[in-house]
Fold:
Amino acid sequence: MERSARWDRITSTPLHIAALAFLAAYAIPILWPGLRNPGFEWVILVVWVLFAIDYLARVVLAENRLRYVRTHLIDLAAIALPMLRPLRLLRVVTILSILNRRASVNLRGRVAAYLVGATTLLGFCAALAALDAERYAPDATITTFADAAWWTLTTMTTVGYGDCYPVTATGRWIGAGLMIGGIAILGTVTATIASWLVEHISEGSEVERLRAEIAELRRNRE
Structure:
């Protein structure tokens, strides 16, 4: 456990920088197709290698290696799957897990910031992936980033107006992932609010109990 914590401290900042580099290298060629350059592919490859090294190091440092692999299957999938463009969205899961390492240090104080960051990151990357898959498809309704962002928002919130929708298989898989992710995030928000309410209600009940005990002690003294 101590070795894993030390590895976290050493790699936290470099992995955050690598995650930002991946987002930039992934987003720029999609948002501005005229800027496509092999250099972006190299950045994505280097970041993938760094994430793979980080995952392998965590497996080696884990007290129970088999259990670590079983409980981090999504991270393993994000690393092990081929470097295909439609599958690059899976690497967002790895980025989210990196953000979650900091959030878990003080979950109560940072859960709101983590949820906002995770939702924004997931929505942004899903919009990019949808635009990349749909832009040049026949009869496409998602042809600009604004279309993709609007579709992502309506899908994650389960509103689904139907004015923008994917027509490719890749786009539909992205939509399915967004629906599941939106429900999961909504459930997390609901659970967090419920936990906060229960905690404050419990604190209020404890205060009332203490007041009653103090009043009882005063009556006994009189």
Remarks:
- Residues 169-221 form the longest helix (53 residues).
- The chain is about 80% helix and 0% strand.
- The chain has two domains: 1-80, 86-221.
- Residues 86-221 form a domain with the Helix Hairpins fold (CATH 1.10.287.70).
